[in-house]
User: What shape does this take?
Amino acid sequence: MENVPSTNFKMATVQESVKFSSEAFINAMIQFKNTDEDAKNAKVIVATIPSYNHLKKAIFDLKKSETFGALFNVSFVVTKVAAKNFYMNKNRNCY
Assistant: This one.
């Protein structure tokens, strides 16, 4: 709506493995930023992380990386979780 130059990034996943690697994601994002014409001019890049399970650790790793921090700023985290991924602990608190 605001005509901000933007693009999206989805890391290619390997069919045999759904394991998320922060280092591989950082390298793929940096390569995307340096090679894609839309990404070079974009002020907003929407990136998709293939796993929700370790999201807090992944964001911590992204912010800890100096090379990632020089090119990108994590402003918002939007998540979508299936209801089957929620569970209750012994005190019946939902996670």
